[in-house]
Every structure is written in C-alpha cells, then in structure tokens.
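Annotated sample (chain length 219).
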Amino acid sequence: MRRIDGISLIEILVVILIIALLAALLMPVIVASRHKAHETQCISNMRQIVSALLMYRQDHGDFPPFAQYTYPYIRNREVFLCPYDHAREFGGVNWFGGGNLYAREHSISLSYFYFADPVGRYEKLIELMPQRDSNHGLLACLLHGTCRSGCRYSIPPSVETCCEGLTLRTRMDGSIQRAHTYLRPCIDPADNTSSAIRDRWNLFTDVPCPTEICSENCY
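Output written by the structure step:
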C-alpha cells in the first residue's frame, strides 16, 4: 500500500494547540520577569536619589526643598523616572502643575514622592518624623501599587490620590521596604491639609502618627 506523504490538518491543529499552550504557560513568566526588571531599575533609581539627598544634606546642612535639586550629584535625568511612569513627557507622577521652577528649567521629571516636598507645606511633619523614626523613609514610588483605571495615564497624573497597595519605600539608610498605602487613609472634612499630611506620614514611616500631625477628629 502506498504511503501518502505530507502533514494532515489534524497534525497542524495539534502543533498549533501545543504552541498556544506553551505561550499561555510562558506569558506569566515573561510578565513577572518584566515586572522584576522594572522594579529592580526603580529600586536602583531610588537608592541613587537617596544617596544624593544625603550628600546634599552633608554639603548644605539640610535636605533640599525638592528632590530634583540633587540633579548635580546624579547628572542623569532618567534616574528620576520610574519605568512604570506613563507620564514621563508631562513631568512624572509628581507633576503638580508643572513641578518647581528648578525642575522646569532643567527639564527634570520626577516619578517619586519625596518626604520633604514641598517644605513649606509639611514643616511639622519634617520636624517630627526624624524625632519619632530616625530611619524614616525619604522616597516612595506609588506606581508599584494598584491604581484605579486611568490614573497612571491621566494628565497631569493623580497617582497620589488613586493608588493603593504595596509601595516601594527607601529609608534613610538606603534600605528598601514595602509599605502599604491606602487611598486617602485620613479624611478630615474640616481640614484637607491635615488629611494630606497624615497621608504623607503613613507613607514614610510605620511609627504611629502623632496628634500634632493627625488631629483626633481625623477618621
């Protein structure tokens, strides 16, 4: 009996099915690897910025009013940007209407939240936090949390008020923690500023928020 050469339709379908199954199995691994690579880059960025903040304090006697002031110590604008920042062209997630004058003049976008940014609004927090926690956080990246739909892509972005979950936090000693942040954990209808300060306190330290920062009527 003569043998018929060639590949049957069933064999082709089986091969396609096997390839599809392999792709489905590999996709989570690829996504996880990409996430890990982005997170590793973000951690490296944060450590470089914190080192620059500490050098700035050593040279000037205090931390700068904005994290972007450390640019002369880093000389690389990419360090200020998290790989997850989709608002790179618009000033980073810490955009806030265009950022400070120094950042605009030097075209520096910032993806990270700096505990002393801006100094004028958080004087009490900046005064009390080092007293309560000598190894408090200096820099945080909310982009590693879970954001509401569209928040990562809004212009200007509003990540600070619409992301929650595990957040990367770099402490004074350069170590990295995973802090849990909430969507506006404190809502004080009588004092919106107090609410914002409490959010920052919870973001940069696990030490209980003092009454000087968190008013008793804040729930």
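Annotation: The helical segments are 9-60, 71-74, 101-105, 123-132, 192-204.
Annotation: Residues 17 and 182 are 43 Å apart (CA to CA).
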